[in-house]
Amino acid sequence: MDHLRKGTETAHEVRAARIVWAAHILSYLTNNRSHAELHQLDADPGEFEDCASDYKTENNVVLTGPEEFVRQKFLNCIAQLLSPSKGWDFVTAVAVRESENFVEVDVARNDSFLSEDNDHGYETRDYCSKLEEYLRTNAEDIDSPPALASEFELKSIRFTHRRVDHWISKLRTTWKTNQNYNNQDEQQWPGLEKAARTWTNMVELISRPDNAQVDKVRDLMVQQAYMCIISMQVRQLLYNVFGSNVCSKLWTTLNFLARPLLDCRLLRSIATREPQFRCIRISLIPPKPKTCVTEKYRLDIFQAWAQLGLDSPSHSEIKMLNSHKEEFRKSCAKSFCLHAEMQLFSHYEDGVALPPTLDYFGCSKKTCFLCENILKSLPKPIATRGRHGICYPAWGLPCSTSAAMEIATNALERDLLFRIRLGFNKLSHQRRFTAHVPQSSVVSNFSKLTLEDWQGKERKLELSRKEEAERRRELLITCYYCSLECQRSDFPSHKLLCKHFSTQPVRPSTEHKRAIFFPVDRSKPRMIWVPCRREIDEDGVSWTKVDAYPYLGTDNPIKGTLRIEHSPVRNRNLGSGFAKWAPFNQGYCISLIHRDGYLIDGSASNKSISVSVGASGPIPHEYRGPIIAVRGLPHESYDDIALADFRHLIDYLVSYRSTQIRESLQCPNIRAPTAIRGVKICCYGEIKLHGTEAFVSVEVDRATRIGLGDGAISLISSRLGMPLVLWKYPDPEFLLDPPGWPEGEMTADSNQNVAFLMMGTNPSKPGWGWAPPYWNREIGNVLVLREDGKDLNLDDVSMMCHFSRYNLQRRFEDTMVSDPNSEGRLGILDFITWENMVKHWEKNSGNGM
């Protein structure tokens, strides 16, 4: 047993050493920059909800959201209130265990709260007790004046004073460099008088000397910042006075400054909704020992490189590794504390406490690259509020030999090695193309050229450059077509923007990206330049903000974004990885930016979209409000939109929520990707007028399948072991008899194959042997798919319908008047088997259809 334990510990030491080696090498390679692919979440506007919306909006969103989301927000607020300052030491993580009457919250911090016995530890424990009391006694006091801070709320401001002072300094710096608000006359801002008074009070506090009654001014500034952010009129005032860029900076800073009050009020609101959160018990988990690489694994950086199984380093790699040789050896000898997230994980993995009831760790900031990889690779993954993606090598690996930890560390090591190889490949690629190429006297005769020869070559070179520039300009505005017919069919749409592409004004700045603007009151879209500015959040993570003002309206509405990643008409994937659940990213998408409330804010019908879509086909829907289309890239970035993207955009709008289904060939190798095969059961009118077969194989793509919604399952097919789902075609052609339809003949929408396939099979119900009313009239054409999502064979449907119509129907009819659950009815159910159906089919050979 001791031998096995020793072997397990040795394996853990090796894994820990390999991760430390790889983490340091990767940090040297990236210079502690964020890994780009981890920025997928940054594309989610919800990452910045604390800074992008007013408190009332956020409060309503949280309190009306799903229970899991409410609990996640609760934990994040707790973590932020228990993190007194910016910086590594004070990063806090929390987890929750719920019971019927109370909630236990475990708290970990990077500095392990320094020590339980010192003044800082006592102050933190006392602060936690006050927080428990605050939620217990103030949960229902939600109608108190917003400007009146309670005793605990003031205590939270002082507990987090270093963080608050940082944002006060930021606010004053931004204000001093943009002092445009000099006129205190409220009448200058009609309709915004109250907002002007609120902001004037904030300005008075900002203008006070830094050393004037620091504690009192700090409390007042946090409360006044809170008063600002609960009013969207203040935001409108800042926008009117300072413009979009400065307004965004001020609003973000005000949100961070008011965070202590925001978190307290939001916790209070959650406790009002969820009574068990009024009684919380906060536990500071005991400190965990520091971890370090065992002495025998403190290798030279080149030895570590070889042990990791990386390829022999190139000259450039050797140069880079050698520059960190001494630093690597010293760093690997250091011992490191566990990050707060890893402390929590170890706390539960070691069995010190019961595991949390929610697979989520609330954090005071985003999770680092190493912690995030461990948590997401566990057999039961743990989510966090987000990740900044920076690889901090000053990171301790939990001393756990569990199977879950082994799985997670192996996955982390593979990911680290993959990124190292990828990073060095990019480094070598860049250097390979940026190296200078010396001129050779063997092949060059430049020294023998006369002045006239040299000038002639220069003129030819200049002419060549102009021709190349013109060619590039033409390529920019040209779409490529597979045939002349295809080009002609696309021209009605192409001509709407072709001229605008070639005559668009010069780009105003490098921040501006080409976009297509669809105004509501014009018959054509037009090209515009929209500013796409890089913003940086509190943790230093960058994201891109599209400034849509004034195109979406001078009221500066809340923006919504729709991403187009697939062209359904041409069955072409543009890219993927723009949604946060995507496993990888590639290509690009077309981002449609619109008014978020276009359905309820009175937005007019968009004339330019109607004209654009109408040039390619029927207009399936009415589109409202102005819309901007820009090309989106992974990691929350944007690029110029191309004219070819306009084609994909129109295809998407033409086919949006379309249920059109195309017939397919019976060749298994010829099919659209992501499509499944189904069967169309044709109605009497389709067969009589168009001469079609009774059963036709069709292809249904994923988008169409989702748009169909829930269908009806044939009970007979379920008893046969292959449940089929049926939908009536939305095609209205045969809902009414066509002109000249013979009287006395079956109606055009009759579909007996479907009606008999949908007969009821419950022997105790009155509907025994009858199709439901919905499937007994106005049937028309019907789409059939397998419930399990597999391809449906046409012969299987044909057999089922023939079996139901010409065999089962007579049996059902004979037992119509029998008692419920009679022997005759139960015997029919026993008869409905795949084997009996095949025998019937082989005997009748499909006759009678």
Tally of distinct domains: 4
Question: What fraction of residues sit in β-strands?
Answer: 5-15%
Q: Looking at the structure, what is the overall shape?
A: globular
Which regions contain 5 or more consecutive residues with pLDDT less than 50? 1-8, 35-54, 429-449, 474-487, 665-670
Distance between the termini: 74 Å
* Helical fraction: 40-55%
Largest sheet geometry: 7 strands, antiparallel
Figure out the total of helices: 29
SSE blueprint:
Layout lengths: L1 H29 L18 H4 L2 H9 L3 H15 L10 E7 L4 E7 L9 H20 L12 H9 L1 H16 L16 H14 L7 H16 L2 H11 L1 H14 L1 H15 L6 E5 L6 E2 L8 H7 L7 H9 L1 H9 L1 E2 L3 H10 L12 E2 L5 H9 L25 H32 L16 H26 L7 H20 L8 E7 L7 E11 L5 E5 L12 E6 L1 E2 L4 E2 L1 E2 L9 E2 L1 E7 L11 H8 L12 E7 L3 E3 L3 H13 L6 E2 L12 E6 L2 H7 L4 E6 L1 H7 L3 E2 L1 H5 L4 E5 L23 H6 L24 E5 L7 H21 L8 H9 L2 H11 L5
Parallel strand pairs: 2-3
Antiparallel strand pairs: 1-2, 1-6, 4-5, 7-8, 7-16, 8-9, 10-15, 11-12, 13-14, 15-16, 16-17, 18-20, 19-20, 19-23, 21-22, 22-23
Helix pairs in contact: 1-13, 1-18, 3-12, 4-12, 5-6, 7-11, 8-9, 8-10, 9-11, 10-11, 17-18, 20-22, 27-29
Structural description of this entry:
Pfam families: OTT_1508_deam (PF14441). InterPro entries: OTT_1508_deam-like (IPR027796). This is Suppressor of anucleate metulae protein B. The structure is a single chain. This protein starts with a helix and ends in a 5-residue tail after the last helix. Mean pLDDT is 78; it is low at 1-8, 35-54, 429-449, 474-487 and 665-670. Helix content is 45%, strand content 12%. It folds into four domains: 2-32 and 292-336 and 391-423, no CATH class; 117-284, no CATH class; 484-655, no CATH class; 662-844, no CATH class. The strands form six sheets. Strands 7, 8, 9, 10, 15, 16 and 17 form a seven-stranded antiparallel beta sheet that branches. It has a six-stranded antiparallel beta sheet with strand order 18-20-19-23-22-21. Strands 3-2-1-6 form a four-stranded mixed beta sheet. Helix 1 (2-30) packs across helix 13 (301-307). The longest helix is centred in the middle third of the chain and has 32 residues, at 403-434. It is globular and about 100 Å long. With 849 residues, the chain is an alpha+beta fold.
